[in-house]
Structure formats: structure tokens, C-alpha cells
Amino acid sequence: MKSINKKIVILLALIMTFSMTLSAYATTVTKPAGDTTHTYSIYQIMTGTVLGTTITNAKWGVNVNTAKGTTGATVPTSDLNTIKATAGGTNREILDVIETYVDTTGAAFATVAANGTVTYSTGSSLPAGYYLVADTTSLDTTDNIADSKNLYVVKVTDGTTLEIASKREVPTLEKKVKQNATKDSTDISTANAFGDMADYNLTDDIDFTIKATLPSNFEDYKSYKCTFNDTMAGLKYKNGMQIEVFTSAGASRGVINPAELTGVPAADDTSFNVDVADLRNGVSVTTDGVNYSDINLASTDYLLMSYTCNFDTATVQYNAANINTASLSYSSDPNAVDGGTLDNTPEDKVAVFTYKIKLLKVDGTNTPITSGVKFYIQNNAGEYAQADASSKITGWGAEAAATQFTTNASGEFEVNGLDEGVYTVTEIAAPTGYVKINPFTVTISAGVEADATSVFALNSFTATSSDTTNVAIVEPGDYSYLTVKVTNISTSSLPTTGGIGRTIFYAVGGLMMLISLILLVVKKRVNNA
Questions:
Q1: pLDDT surpassing 90 at residue 12
Q2: How buried is 515 (Cβ within 10 angstroms: 0-12 exposed, 13-18 middle, 19+ buried)?
Q3: pLDDT higher than threshold 70 for residue 18
Q4: Residue 14 burial by Cβ neighbours in a 10 Å radius (0-12, 13-18, 19+)
Q5: Listed residue (195, 50, 41) closest to 121, CA to CA
Q6: CA-wise closest residue to 432 among 360, 492, 495, 486
Q7: What burial class does residue 516 get, using C-beta atoms within 10 Å of its C-beta: 0-12 exposed, 13-18 middle, 19+ buried?
Q8: Short-list 485, 484, 475, 486, CA closest to 319
Q9: Which of 493, 465, 453, 356 is nearest to 412 (CA)?
Q10: Cα 229 from Cα 249, distance rounded (Å)
Q11: pLDDT-based confidence at residue 326 (cuts at 50, 70, 90)
């Protein structure tokens, strides 16, 4: 009897334990893989008996839009049919219908913390039913990390599990600068191609591009806006800004109507923030520059901004990277009517270089020659350099307009703002007491390496000369400039030719003639004696 009673007690204990397990049972809510920062709210649309993705005996949930029904009331067949009719549509088409049935302004049925902890407003699980999951994360727009909110997720659950699918996508941005026909000796740049660095003469036009992709879930957005941000150090905007739409295969779909852009910079601006109209509404483009037509964008399309800059002579750095920094601000909430808060892509940077050289005049003892020696400098096209009072290059042209670079009291002058390449140096007139040197060429070469802190940094700066007898290249070691040292020869040091010369022959000849005359006179006197 005691044995039977003991078995009954054990059975009752097991029943009680099982009952406690059932009442404590919690739904397993799974966040997207790798998601450790986003938070979510879960809204209950309806409850019912769930078999697979089918709900029967549907009742309106606690978060139903009161304009559609009352919590606990039976869901009308017409509403179920309306919801079912969205099957097969795009995410945006489905959500445009489902959202009308949900009130997301009140308290959610449950919330999911960044670490995955689920908190329920009532109970400890999700009753079987139909739910909408909204991303409630406050995005950090200053962390230099592209992010976006998750698209609303609608799920049928039997109450055991609810998986939050990842529907977060972000655009990308890529900044490039065009190199001219010259390129750095380390081949970081490619001649006449767009890349991450370039070098130019101080007055050259410099072309840039910014490529912005669209998020792969672009079609899920209610509204999508973007802003091209750019900051130029040592550079300034000139002209030519446009944004062109391309397919993923690189085929142009046309240039966006300038009327749909705001914030286009003015000449000499050193930064800009150019806004593009809501891209989900389509854009007006032209393929001939005259006629415009509206097109709808696809998630595989991309935008390519292009424009031209010059060096800013007031802030340009010589023999150092002049940095151009770009980023894209973009709609980060596909569920927001206005695109939501704009998040930012990581910054992308490119570097532009221009170079400085010095010319030093010395004599045969390596002593600087006094000031006032003048030179012309020509580029490889034969054009003469023009410069301002600070020896900054202002242009290239005919000899008549050329600058005469003049040595100072230390026997030197600077030339600021040269590209890599070949230059001809011509001494206009020699200083008093010296012989003018023949024109010679100087070939400037720079080496560049990627640098984590400054984007790019010089790792060499050197030159060679066609005159290896009278011209030497002196490098200070920090690549900040180089000196072309020109040695002039003093006229007193000039060698002579012709041996002892002809004067002695004249003297000897005259003396011999005198001796012959004396001998002739003496002979005549002897003969007359």
C-alpha cells in the first residue's frame, strides 16, 4: 500500500513539474546572424490556430489598428482575403497592405534587446498568430560605419519560434581621381585613368568621380534620398558637376536633370553636400543634353557624380598629399515615408600631389653666386613657365609672357607646383665674370606608398639631369623638395688653346730681320774698303 502511495506521489510530482514547464514555456526569438546591436519591437496583428503558414479561428491581436478591428474580435473573411491576396507580391507591395492593419504607435507585444533578450508586455511567450517585427534601433550616424534599419518582417508563428529575417542592406561609395599622362614611379596611379592618387601641375584641371550604389533592397524603400558629401584639402571646385545613372553593366541611362539636384557648389568652393531628389519616385534624365524623360531606378543601378577641381593655391601642400574626402548620406529606414534618418557610408579618400624644386647657383668652389641670375623653365611641350611673386606656377605659354626666375641673395630660387616629368632649364644670361651654361633638362620623379594615416605619402622624390658635368641633384632626405645645383665656370678659369701663341714668332721674326739687315750693312762696308 505504501508502495502504491509512493508511486502516486511521484506521478503527481511529475505532473506538477510538467505543468510548471508548460506555463514557463517561452517562444524562441532568433535575431539575424551577427546582429549584436539592433533592437526590435514585435507587434501582434492576430492570433489563432496555426498550421504551417495558415491561421484559422483568427482573432485580432493587441496591436491591431482600431480603424480595422477590435482586439479579440473575429477577423472578417474579407480582411483575411485582402491579406492573402498580397502573396506573390514584392516586399513593398505586401507591407503596404499589412501596415494598414497594425498600430505601431502604442506599446509592442514584445521587445528584443540588442543582446537578444525578449521582454513581453504580457505573459512570457508569443501566442500562435501573425506578427509584425519592426527595427527600433537608433543608428549612430557618426561612427563611419554604414548601417540601416531592417525592413518590417511579418511572420506566422505557432508560438514556439519566431525568426527575424535579415533585410538590412546599405549602399557603397567609391571616390576616384584621374591621373594625367604622367604617373608616379611606384605605379600606384595609371596614366590617363581614374585611381586613388594623381599628381599635377599647379594650374591643371583635375577630374574626380564619386560612384554611389543603391542598396540591394532599394525596391523595398518607401522613400530613398541621398546626399553626396565632399571635402577638399588644398583643392577647390571648378565646374562640370553632373550625376549620371548607369546599369550594373556600365551602360548609361542618362544624366539626371540638374533641377533635381540641390547644393551644387559654386566655383572656388572647397566642400559640398549635393542632395538628390527622392529616387523611389524616379528621376528625370537626358541622353542628349536637351530632352528629358522620367525613369524608375533598379537596385542594380548606380549613380556616378563627376566634376572638375583645381589646386587651391592658398592652402595647397607641396610634396604632400592634398586629400579629397567623400561620403554618402542615405536613407536608412525602408519603412519610413520620408526615408528616415540619413546614415553615412564610410569615408573614401583620394590624394593629389604637386611638387616643389629649388635651383641653386654656385661657382667652382661650391660658393653660391650672388643674386640676379635669371632662368627660363619650359615643360615637355616647350611652353614657358609663368609664376607669381611667390614662385607659384600660374600658367604656361609663349616666351614673351614667360617668368624670368631670378636667384636671390643666397643664389637660389624656388618653383612651386610642378608635375612629374621633363623640364628644360635655360640660363638667360651669365653673371658677370662667369660663362653661361647651356640649356639642360631636369626629369622629376616621385614615388608614393599607401599610408594608413595620411592616405598616401611620398617614399621618394628625385630628379636626373641631362648635364651631369655642371648640374647636380641634392635631396634633403625628407622628400619635401629637391635642389638643382648649377655650377658656373669663371672666365678667369677658362682654358686657352694654340700652345704659346703667335707673338713669339712675330718677335723672333723681327729680330732675325734686324740681324739680317745689320749683316747686310756690314758686308757692304767690307766690300767698299
A1: no
A2: exposed
A3: no
A4: exposed
A5: 41
A6: 492
A7: exposed
A8: 475
A9: 356
A10: 25
A11: very high
